[in-house]
Amino acid sequence: MAKYVYTFTEGNKDLKDLLGGKGANLAEMTNLGLPVPPGFTITTEACRHYLSRGSVPEGLDAEVEANLAELERTMGRRLGQADDPLLVSVRSGARFSMPGMMETVLNIGLNDESVVGLAARSGDERFAWDSYRRLVQMFGRTVQDIEGDLFEEAVEEVKAAKGTTDDLDLDAADFRELVGRFQDIVLERTGRPFPSDPREQMALAVKAVFDSWNAPRAALYRRQERIPADLGTAVNVCAMVFGNLGMDSGTGVAFTRDPASGQPGVYGDYLQNAQGEDVVAGIRNTVPLADLEKIDVRSHAELMGIMDTLENHYRDLCDIEFTIERGKLWMLQTRVGKRTAAAAFRIADQLVDQGMITLDEAVQRVTGDQLAQLMFPRFDEAAVAGAGVRRIGHGMNASPGAAVGKAVFDSYTAVKWSRSGEKVILCRRETNPDDLEGMIAAEGILTSRGGKTSHAAVVARGMGKTCVCGAEEIDVDTKNRRLTAPGGEVVEEGDVISIDGTSGEVYLGEVPVVDSPVVRYFEGEIDPASDQADDLVRSVDRLMHYVDAARRMRVRANADTAEDAARARRMGAQGIGLCRTEHMFLGDRRQLVERLILADTEDEQRDALAELLPLQREDFAGILEAMDGLPVTVRLLDPPLHEFLPDITELSVRVAVAEARGESHENDLRVLQAVHRLHEQNPMLGLRGVRLGLVVPGLFSMQVRAIAQAAVDRMAAGGRPRPEIMIPLVGTVQELEIIREDALRVLREVEREHGVELDFPVGTMIELPRAALTAGEIAENAEFFSFGTNDLTQTVWGFSRDDVEASFFSAYLEKGVFGVSPFESLDVDGVGRLIRIAVEEGRAARPGIKLGVCGEHGGDPASVHFFHRVGLDYVSCSPFRVPVARLEAGRAAGRTAG
Ligand code: PEP
Ligand code: MG
């Protein structure tokens, strides 16, 4: 028979799936001999059973009964015993921490009789009645769903009658009165008296905790944090200890290192004569942990010893909650603590130095997302102190980055101003899907309402846009297009503000932005061995060295200018995985393409191509030089042809005006006809990629010739060019065959002309489902595959990125259809499956075929792990993401990789 209840002596830290994080760690601490109040954990399995069937599993009640009896024996008191009651807390605790999302009920076991016993035993009548009213209040709110305001109002009334605003002025009689009032509220709202039977209180509280797993805010939090919805929560039943029994009692939270900077040394807060919820509610100011030494030297020393034990045991930063009850220290919780990105790198590095972990473990303790955060530009702190810039408010740091722009108060203005080249910050009370366009247009988003899971926060994070949300002290007045800061500063529409999504600060004026030291290090501007490098840079450098040696996959960059290529190389790119050629045909060269497309005769066509050739050769020469000695995959022209033609409306107007004036307009008319002919309803699925190469004669061969000639020039200059020629949007091997043969013919021609050998691989993108499904055939004609996961995602899902991201994606994310956009993180089940097929069949047909990816997923941490697992040779991503991909490729290859 299943076991649904574990005492704290039975569990351990590895049973998080079953006991939740809190329960598993309470058990671990108990087994370490640390002072944990006794208790037991009801498993997540019991919760899942309850949630799916609507009733607790058979046998659970008996197990709870037996464990409670055991707890009572240990404590020498019975739950709710009239003369000396055992009280328990009932707390949620899921596998993954979901702070504040689920329920807790304290002081279970109090009723009209046992409150008297508690008063007598504690010698503190006020404490006993305060505890009782807390029980009725929490129970009423969380178990019985009564609006919390009703209780708060009653407290306010009693305080008002007493002429005070401070809880501390209330005495035993006041709390007793509150208990009476609260009981009346319960009776009135539920039609039943407050349950006085402690067992009934406990059973109802357990069910309420189970139910809280499905509370809307918890469900939303899970979707955003990508926590599976079917895990359920464990429930911890624990003997109560009290931090509110006088000045020799108290409660606190602590970290074994500073979770913000990663500095060694304990760090925390303590509040005398208080319970945990008082710390969270911030009703009184806490004191730094160091002050505890003066207040209670023995408990302080014991706590320091315990923190040391925990850090050595968990081999990581731990955070803890503790309570001191009349001079006796109790541990209420511990876990491996959350930390900032900078602290993650610092701590991992320090733990290696201390011999606690290996470098391989250290790199598992940091993530690519954290590294990306360290690479965001930041506000120049020196300039913040300077004239003209003032901090005017603070909100939640919802999406990192530093954004500067003119304040606008609606989406329409955001779009309009940004179209005319202005940088704007969209300021709203809160955002909704109607604001999406404005959010896209803005540099950053500031809201005065809503938390880190609000629409603004979620969508901004999804878009990688800076966001400060829930800045409640700032009054956003959208009607009058202004905001008022708590200090009285008024920001009118058009005034420049700066928002810091990493700290949550809001500034009036333009704060200059600087590159982060980590970027300067990657750029080679900071030598990690010099004094210029701070501890963070040194930590990053150490871990990067390790991952570079550990990883199997190579990391290339997507770059299509010599500058980008050079930058990518500084960032550690080992070549270019995608050099797009479309921008090379814009600007002045556009008319050449226009001539090419509209040419009536072969001569005209040849002329246009001949003019393009040297220009293209220049483009490639610069890139090959920047990446000398490393592979450069050049993709032949991809986008729809009509993108190179004039705008249809403009042209129609021109033709109409000329006609009306009786002016000659033959050329415009000809172009207009061509534009009409080439106009497509769905350009994404139209005449592009290899299809273009097949219908516009000479275009692809001109590009291949330009690549070959650029390589010849580079060789003549002593370089080692390594171009690779890539054909886009292939759906069938026949397309590839034709273009490939032509490309090889051109290469041979150039070889003959210059008397050199040009052994350049010709390969294809795999970016259509059909290509993936026929990869075996295609591989026979391709020396490499590069997965174009942008188009593959579009075509597998059947949606066009440009259209859907701005329209229904935020709704999909909100509804949890996906936890993250499939354009951001690879859809492993769908797109990933096609990639697997293509890898297997491609390798079977051509062992040794080189496989890479050049869609944006190449720089996404989770996707990089997938690409490692399926055995790709390299990933390619934007230059700025190269360090992230290097780190994740190394983590994926690590011995301890999960
Ligand atoms: C792709 O489709 O993944 C790709 C890299 O090509 P593009 O984004 O240029 O279409
Ligand atoms: Mg593509």
Q: What would you say this structure looks like, in words?
A:
The strands form 6 sheets. An 8-stranded mixed β-sheet has the order 12-22-21-14-15-16-17-13. Strands 24-25-26-27-28-29-30-31 form an 8-stranded parallel barrel, surrounded by 6 helices. The protein folds into 4 domains: 5-239, ATP-grasp fold, A domain (Dna Ligase, domain 1, 2-Layer Sandwich); 250-336, ATP-grasp fold, B domain (D-amino Acid Aminotransferase, Chain A, domain 1); 376-514, Phosphohistidine domain (Glucose Oxidase, domain 1); 551-589 and 596-640 and 701-897, TIM Barrel. The chain is built from 37 helices and 31 strands. It is elongated, with a radius of gyration of 33 Å. Helix content is 47%, strand content 17%. It is α/β, with parallel strands linked by helices and 898 residues long. Bound molecules: phosphoenolpyruvate (PEP) and magnesium ion (MG). Phosphoenolpyruvate is lined by residues 578, 580, 638, 767, 788-791, 854-855.
Say how many strands there are: 31
| Strand order, largest beta sheet | 12-22-21-14-15-16-17-13
Give the helix proportion (percent range): 40-55%
Biggest pleated sheet: 8 strands, mixed
What is the total number of structural domains? 4
- Unreliable stretches covering 5 or more consecutive residues: none
Percentage of β-strand residues: 15-25%
Tell me what the CATH architecture of the largest domain is. Answer: Alpha-Beta Barrel
Note the overall shape. Answer: elongated
